[in-house]
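B., you asked whether I could sanity-check this one before it goes into the benchmark set. Here's the sequence:
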Amino acid sequence: MRAYRRFTVQPVLPEKIHSLEALAHNLRWSWHQPSRDLFRAIDPQLWDSVGEDPVKLLTAVSAERMQQLAADKVFVRRVELLHDDLQNYLTADLWFQNHAAKGEDVPSAIGYFSAEFGVSQTLPQYSGGLGILAGDHLKAASDLGLPLVGIGLLYRHGYFRQSLNAAGWQQERYPVLSSNDLPVRRLTDDAGEPLTITVDVSGREVKAWIWVASVGRIPLLMLDTDRVDNDPEARNITDRLYGGGTEHRLAQEVLLGIGGVRALREYCRVTGHAKPDVYHCNEGHAGFLGFERIREYLAEGHDLNCAIELTRAGTVFTTHTPVPAGIDRFDRSLIERQFAHFCSGLPLQRILDFGTETYAGGDHSRFNMAVLGLRLGQRANGVSKLHGAVSREMFNGLWPDFDETEVPITSVTNGVHHRTWIHPELLEILEAHTDDSDTVIDGYDWSAIQRVDDDTLWSLKRQLRASMIHMARARLSESCKVRGLPDDWTADALNPRVLTLGFARRGASYKRLTLMLTDPERLKRLLNHPQTPIQIIIAGKAHPADNIGKSLIQQMVQFSDQPDVRGKLVFLPDYDMSMARPLYPGCDVWVNNPLRPYEACGTSGMKASLNGAANLSIKDGWWDELYAPEFGWEIPSLEGITDQVERDAAEAEYFYSIIENEIIPKFYTLDTHGNPLAWLKMMRDTISDLGPEVLASRMVRDYVTQMYAPAALSSAALVDDSQANALAVWKERIRRDWDSLHVVALDTNVTGRVAAGDQLEVTVDVRLGDLSASDVAVQLIFGDVDNEDKLHNIRKYATTPALEADGVTRFEASIPARYSGQIGLLARAVPSHPLLASDSEMGLAAVVTG
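And here's what the prediction gave me:
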């Protein structure tokens, strides 16, 4: 029989230890080891059986045990101290407050919108890297004291749980998540009544609860449509992360963007939290938030163009994919149906224009969420330097009159939350007791690892490897039972003294899970070498609709099932945060071999490096900018080979040879004490030198200084209605009159050759037409010139207006010749206004012709 209703009977905690409830419902415990130790002390066996979930622990523990703990003075004191510590953490001045106190520009508050958040395995609302990144963003923002609010959806089934059948084919199941078992609470008003937001979804009213998860200092608002007053289709909007068809996905994104803004307004109203002046759209899923903000400004009495400028000024858009197929694109008819009656002041055609693929090769019948994000966000970024460059190339068509380098997409390289991902024993070594050293960052002395002796460090690494293997054996045994296969071999699977490689990520084809199987016999020789073997641990999920990804997983599983491979290369099903935390510290080498440049960042390698693992990776994503031989190895990327099979074979050859000729000798060459000195040096250098570069705290600081603060300044500059209206009117006039402007002549004192260091005297004649000199910036564009006269490595120089005659204004500049070689020169005019974020913001440029 199946239950018709579910509910939880919550034991009443004794008064002396009642603060356990507050500790359990703030997810700071997930990265605060003393709190985790406290919950484990309640009942170690029960703690493990409930998946290290304090909310479930407090529900399951017996009343008798609670009374015993309430009578234990030492335990009661621990609870009091940890509760006091939490309260201090929630209220203390941290980096953000100190940064603002120095007079630095900071936002009042930030709304951070994401379709998924990977904060803890106890709140399984994530599928992979995007969600884990969002969770790390919240945790780092909390540690730094940012006034940030997260906004997402509460999926009743989360993401799927993975298992394998006997043939190694991925199976999916979607367990029901009860809000009673999750670290969330409904947002209520002063009378204790739950608050509701409503959103029109394809012509019908949909209501949603607002749940709040406390992520340290950061509230995470999560919308839930599973209500009895919604129709069945509406109730299922928040059923699964990335589930259902296109219309289902659109409904989720409407709820996230439009409903998310409304939930944020309710939260600020009832709690007094500062209203955000910056709205961060983490990927395109939440892009519709811009339409809701425009609607709000229209309701306040602004005209449409003014409302758009106010919205754009405070919006930050982050793109996470260099793969066009990874971008959400909806049929135009679906958008028309959804937004036909959204707002009388925002015409449907304007809505459609924001997401239309107007660039060459674009499909005008599709509505592109990344294009929407770029058009409604004044600031945009990729998630590594290489990804920023790839994104500028991918979206250059939106700014066709500008060089690829001028496309207004910058980059903020991702980072990972060290308190979550570094093993506690290693983190303890790094913990700093003073803050008076340049090597101390966020409370940890990253140079401390250099002072740990060889015996201690190698002993710790072997311990971490053994702990990871213990976890892997348990999961392998369970997987065998699910598959209907014998598990007698799992007790001896893997060896704690063997060089261990890890590979764990989504099963997307571009990540090339099976590249290592290119020469299976060679791989077997590496796995079975009598003196210097390797072992490999693999994990990852394929999207339920991705049969190609599933087939790659099956190939790997079937290879691992072979008798001469079993226990030496293993696939662990159901990759999640609970697996990842012991996996990264236990691996010696982390493998990443995507097709470059399709890995936007790839943060799993960052987590491994923080635990002293070397990276063996294609120089893609973050590894492209931070690779150094002290931290690992580069697998050459052979983009010049156009045949994919040939390219895979060539790159696999490098993979094997690096392992054989460089990694194995370094790992297995021991001193007289049995320590691999060269390997230990790499571990130390990776943690001390690379570690600070891959921190989420560094990433969030970069967002504050490079994205949030400038966006807040832009918003503040438009707070005065006259300024916002003036900017909107100015832009409208510039667009209307732009074609009347012509750059008619460019002249220099150069004839053929010029000596380096000489001054170039340049004049540019511009017929301004209906514009004025103050409306434009006339620029000189220098660059290396190729045989087709195309400019590369461009440099921009400003000119100043000198005189005007017969409707022509002359602009002048004196430029030193700093660069040698074949140099090309171009003159152009672009719109110029103090409130524009870049030269290319409006997408308008006029170049000299004739």
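One thing to flag: The mean pLDDT is 95. Otherwise nothing jumped out at me.
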